[in-house]
């Protein structure tokens, strides 16, 4: 069923607010001082100009050329709306530009050219070539688009790619590989009917034939019906190449017994009768935009066995070129490609098809409001799949390098993959070093909440990624049922399921617990209940007895509750120096904030402890610690009793002779801004602080959540530290991936 349909009013408001259109341009260099001005413009700018004049390839180093794509249209085939002209095509082209940015961090700018003359377009695009690393032609109608693209490819030294042709073909091919996989048919055997012999249609059929579809099994139709050999009306050389030797004359006739229908024509071009006449398990890709040739509801009404895809995001199976162009260009730009060739396109199609057959991350389920797994309603990855950015460009770049399209081949593909992850996810590089350390540690990880499917998936991934053994606290039948429901039935035998009924250690656990709790108001019965029935306590007891090396919990209960339970077994409290440290990542910068979990109102000794814990966490993350004790005053002004402890904490660390930088008290701007620090030449930090120790838990929570909400910062933690054994507590809104990351932190011994 379609969901979240948009209204015309919503669509207009979206384009009007907050400012007209969909994007703006931002500077990436500082532009605050006169010196900045001298460097960015005259006289400094003369230096790169001369360097480029001497060595043109350095334009990729000194300008934004290497990450800049032009989205060019004349508006003659705007989606399936027809010839709306250059100006009216601008919303689509701006949209394309923001998709480039959002999905692959490619800077793109729309350029609408007010001409229908191919020669004028060719000349204009060719002349602007020096500016760009690639050219995306869009919504230019056939057959002019073929002439324009062909000439530009021949005459330009950067990739020229008409997305309606090749982007559509690549996604269609990816979807078809999987749809045929499900329907048990082979591309060599299937009868394909393609409606719409324009830019998208011709390219789709060409690519499918290159991938094995037989010419004699393919029928192409346009507004005049079947394109058959000998037809003269409405023909051109590109249609002729696909003309079939057949007696069929209409789409209706062609659809009888067809295995596959591909529509890149117009709204409503297919009827229910046509769908009813198709072969068993028919594949229907109704890709016309904004409205498909037939809706999935209409198709399913007459054929429940149909696998249906559309070009829209509000139905399952979105076969839309948005899955391709951002990543094709990302891969091509990163090898300074001369072109995007067929091999790069086919590599992209296969990489997309393979991705759809893998387990789907929770982030995707969150974006779509439901869990997805490979099948009739999920044959192609969704645009919000975070794996696309590091899987697809790698395949494209590799194919480009193998086929000589690369000017600058990538030497280290692993590093490239990591750089792609980091482009869209600031945690990626930090997590990579933690992952490496976790793999080396081979910790037996106790997952306390084996009754939660997210936890089970995290546990399976933990073990399958080679981090170590996953021990899951739960009931074997329940774990089995939940793994099977998550499509991970084969993992049942891999995980070790532990519970009070199957352990031989229950009595030892209870004795240990009674020893700790007997003077805290707990009797034997209470202790039995806790040890045998509370999964957090049971898991902590396992850890305390060395029956696991680290523990992760908190996905199903609030962290305060989990911490209280863990405290029955460990001294994970303020009095014993435990602390919670949260890493905030924003604009390529990481700042740790503490204490975000344990201390309500720490005194100066506690603050010094928290700083020391935070410095330890920073080092685990590969960050050289620089601590600032922050407040609303800087070095004693304004005078305030409340700021006193922040100042004293620094003195405590002086006495302790710690091996990291610290300073305080100071306001956050002094802590984080090297220029503002210059006003205090006596202060001891050698650069902006990367650890902020705040006066109390409320200020910690406010700071972290303000950064998250206002700035869109990424947050890792709170990371629990200062406990005898590594224990990490995730949050109830954690995805399987978040839980896995917490397990990795625990496995690294942060605790
Ligand atoms: N899902 C996706 O990712 C994409 C979808 N599309 C969609 O594909 C469609 C075509 O786009 P594009 O190829 O760029 O446009 P073109 O203008 O280049 O080609 C349109 C083709 O469709 C044919 N056509 C139009 N109406 C009908 C009809 N009712 N029955 C049969 N054939 C018809 C035209 O026939 P004739 O030659 O006789 O005029 C022409 O061959 C659009 O709806 C567009 O939104 C395009 C790109 C990507
Ligand atoms: C998606 C797209 O490019 C089109 O419909 O034209
Ligand atoms: Mg288009």
UniProtKB/TrEMBL annotation:
It comes from the Bacteria. This is Phosphate acetyltransferase. NADP(+) binds at residues 78-85. One of its GO terms (molecular function) is NAD binding. Residues 20-153 form the Malic enzyme N-terminal domain. PROSITE patterns: MALIC_ENZYMES (PS00331). Residues 165-401 form the Malic enzyme NAD-binding domain. The active site is at 96 (proton acceptor). CDD domains: NAD_bind_2_malic_enz (cd05311). One of its GO terms (biological process) is malate metabolic process. Pfam families: malic, Malic_M, PTA_PTB. Keywords: Metal-binding, Multifunctional enzyme, NADP, Oxidoreductase. A divalent metal cation binds at residues 138-139, 164, 289. Its cofactor is Mg(2+); Mn(2+). In the N-terminal section; belongs to the malic enzymes family.
């Amino acid at each position: 069923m379609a969901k979240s349909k948009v209204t015309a009013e919503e669509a207009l408001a979206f384009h009007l607010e907050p400012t007209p259109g969909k994007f703006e341009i931002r500077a990436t260099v500082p532009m605050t001082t006169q010196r900045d001005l001298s460097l960015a413009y005259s006289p400094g700018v003369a230096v790169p100009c001369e360097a480029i004049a001497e060595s043109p390839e350095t334009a990729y180093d000194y300008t934004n050329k290497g990450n800049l794509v032009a989205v060019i249209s004349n508006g003659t085939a705007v989606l399936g709306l027809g010839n709306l002209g250059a100006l009216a095509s601008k919303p689509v082209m701006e949209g394309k530009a923001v998709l480039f940015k959002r999905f692959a961090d490619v800077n793109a700018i729309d350029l609408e050219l007010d001409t229908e003359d191919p020669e004028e377009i060719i000349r204009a695009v060719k002349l602007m070539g020096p500016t760009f690393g690639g050219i995306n032609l869009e919504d230019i109608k056939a057959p002019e688009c073929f002439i324009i693209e062909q000439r530009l490819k021949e005459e330009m030294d950067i990739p020229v790619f008409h997305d309606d042709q090749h982007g559509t073909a690549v996604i269609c091919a990816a979807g078809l590989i999987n749809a045929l996989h499900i329907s048990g048919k082979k591309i060599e055997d299937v009868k394909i009917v393609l409606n719409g012999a324009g830019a998208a249609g011709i390219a789709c059929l060409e690519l499918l034939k290159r991938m094995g579809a037989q010419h004699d099994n393919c029928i192409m139709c346009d507004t005049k019906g079947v394109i058959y050999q000998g037809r003269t009306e409405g023909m051109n050389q590109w249609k002729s190449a696909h003309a079939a030797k057949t007696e069929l004359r209409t789409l209706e006739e062609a659809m009888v017994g067809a295995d596959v229908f591909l529509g890149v024509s117009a709204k409503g071009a297919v009827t229910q009768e046509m769908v009813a006449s198709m072969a068993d398990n028919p594949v229907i890709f109704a890709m016309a935009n904004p409205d498909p040739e037939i809706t999935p509801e209409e198709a399913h009404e007459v054929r429940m066995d149909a696998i249906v895809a559309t070009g829209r995001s509000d139905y399952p199976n979105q076969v839309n070129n948005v899955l391709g162009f951002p990543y094709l260009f990302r891969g091509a730009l990163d090898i300074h490609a001369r072109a995007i060739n067929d091999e790069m396109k086919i590599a992209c199609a296969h990489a997309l098809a393979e991705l759809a057959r893998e387990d789907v991350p929770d982030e995707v389920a969150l974006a779509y409001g439901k869990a997805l797994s490979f099948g009739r309603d999920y044959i192609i990855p969704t645009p919000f799949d975070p794996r696309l950015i590091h899987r697809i460009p790698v395949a494209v770049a590799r194919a480009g390098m193998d086929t000589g399209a690369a000017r600058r081949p990538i030497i280290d593909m692993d590093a490239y993959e990591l750089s792609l992850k980091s482009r869209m996810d600031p945690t990626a590089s930090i997590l990579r070093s933690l992952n490496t350390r976790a793999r080396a540690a081979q910790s037996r990880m106790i997952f306390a909440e084996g009754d939660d499917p997210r936890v089970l998936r995290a546990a399976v991934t933990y073990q399958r990624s080679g981090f170590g053994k996953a021990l899951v606290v739960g009931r074997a039948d329940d774990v089995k049922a939940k793994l099977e429901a998550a499509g991970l039935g084969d993992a049942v035998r891999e995980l070790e399921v532990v519970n009070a009924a199957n352990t031989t250690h229950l009595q030892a656990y209870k004795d240990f617990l009674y020893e700790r709790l007997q003077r805290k108001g707990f009797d034997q019965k209470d202790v039995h209940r806790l040890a045998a029935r509370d999964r957090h306590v049971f898991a902590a007891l396992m850890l305390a007895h060395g029956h696991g090396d680290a523990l992760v919990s908190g996905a199903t209960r609030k962290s305060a509750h989990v911490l209280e339970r863990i405290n029955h077994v460990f001294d994970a409290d303020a009095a014993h120096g435990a602390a919670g440290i949260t890493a905030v990542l924003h604009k390529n910068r990481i700042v740790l904030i503490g204490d975000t979990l344990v201390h309500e109102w720490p005194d100066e000794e506690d603050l010094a402890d928290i700083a020391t814990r935070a410095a330890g966490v920073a080092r685990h993350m590969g960050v050289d610690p620089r601590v600032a004790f922050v407040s609303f005053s800087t070095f004693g002004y304004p005078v305030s009793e409340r700021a006193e402890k922040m100042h004293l904490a620094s003195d405590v660390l002086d006495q302790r002779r710690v091996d990291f930088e610290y300073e305080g008290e100071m306001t956050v701007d002094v802590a984080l801004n090297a220029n503002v620090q210059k006003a205090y030449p006596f202060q001891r930090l050698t650069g902006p602080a990367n650890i902020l120790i705040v006066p109390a838990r409320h200020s910690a929570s406010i700071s972290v959540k303000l950064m998250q909400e206002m700035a869109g910062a990424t947050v890792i933690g709170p990371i629990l530290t200062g406990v005898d054994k590594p224990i990490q507590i995730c949050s109830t809104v954690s995805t399987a991936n978040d839980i896995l990351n917490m397990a990795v932190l625990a496995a690294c011994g942060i605790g």
